[in-house]
Input
Amino acid sequence: MLGTIPFGMSLREASHGASLDCSVKFSYTQYMFTLSDASRDIKQLLKFAGIFITAVVVIVLILRVVFFIKETIYPTPPPKPEVTFGKLQPQSFPANAVNQNLTYSINTLTGNLPNLNSQSKVYRIKTLQPDLLAVNKFQDKISSVGFAKGYTAISDKIFEWKSNQNYGGIEKRIRFNTINNNFTITSVYTTDADILKGKNLPTETKAIDSATSLLDNMKVMPADIDLEKTKSNLFSIQNNSLSTATSLSNAQIIEVNFFQKDIDKLPIFYGKPNSSNISILVAGGGYQGQIVGANFIYQPVSDEFSTYPLKSVSVAYEELKNGQAYIASYFGTSTNITITNAFLAYYISSQAQDFLMPIIVFEGNEGFFAYVPAVTDEWINK
Output
């Protein structure tokens, strides 16, 4: 039944309109059915995807826990040391800071010495190439920091310049080694009346600025110096020699020390724990921040390395107790030392060396520091 036919519309037109209306309704219903199915399928897909991702995360976490437990109980051994450089020359240490027979006890937080790495890298020290123009180049560098032109040949490799009198201040001399590019600055500051009075002595910060400016103006500041490690030590002058001062008020000399950057997260130590091979002496006297002495010994480290086996900390401790360690510093009077820490470091001597080698550092009470060579004895020429 078509019902009532609108006025003016034929029966055929009414029939065609009803058919078109049914077709539109059918298409809409079909569209709604398809959209509903798609929505349901997407929800199911997201559900399974969430389950899958959760399962993967859980499996990864389980594997990590299992691996951690395995490494804790049965750690994977490191690769065998390469020892490419063969046997190494022994490290060169200065004379011990004290000559007493010392006894030792462990007083760490755990009551035991820490476990240290069983192997470490040994680096080759860079070899400097001879430079026929080294003397002239160095003379150009020092002319900007108060030294006069014209040198004296002390030997075939050592040359000396005097300070320029027009710059004022205490008279100084600088000696330069053309083989290793090291130099020293000396003066008679221990007898200067104004310096002995502490006149115009700068603050430690200003002393560091003066020392840094000296190396920068000479264009000799090494690229591997960590300026954040720079330290200053206070000294008084007693009987023409330096003694540790307790405060700036009773000091006449400030020693500024520059330290090389850590290598493989290990610090570099020198002959004295709080000093370095690059040190500048700063005083007052005629003017504030006057440079009165310097010691510049620099051995650049190359990128070439090989791994070597290391002594255990217990073996190193036995060597310490048997007097086979270098005692770098100790300010106490008791012969019994309590060891509070032990750690690995690299050591650079004031003497020329072919390789940068590790040491085991023992730290104790009252400024005690001792170094034990870390590479096992089988790889050291003795």
Observations:
- The mean pLDDT is 90.
